[in-house]
Amino acid sequence: MFRRFTFSFLVALLFVAVASVALAAEGTPAAGGDSSMKAVIALAAGFGIAIAAFGGAMGQGRAIAAGLEGIARNPSAQNKIFIPMIVGLALIESLVIYALVIAFVLVGKI
Q: What angle do CA 102, 105, 106 make, to 5 degrees?
C-alpha cells in the first residue's frame, strides 16, 4: 500500500515537473503582459479579503456561541466570560482588518 502511494506521488511529481517545462513562456512578455499581472493582483486581493472575512466570521460566530453557552450554564460568571470574549472578538476582527490593508496595498500596485 505504501509503495503504491509513493509510486503515485512520484509519478504526479514527474508530471508537474514536465508540465512546468512544457508550458513555460518564451522570451520577454508582450506589451499586454502587464495587464495580466494586474488582473492577478486584483484577483489575489479579492480572494484574500473574501477568505479573511469568511474565516473571521466563522471564528467570531464560534466565539460568541461558546461565550453565550458558558453564560447560559453559569449566569454568575457573566463578568468573567463577557469581557475576554469581547477582547477575543476584537483580535479576530483585527486580523480581518490586516487582510483588508494587505488587499489595499496590492490594489495600490495596479
A: 90
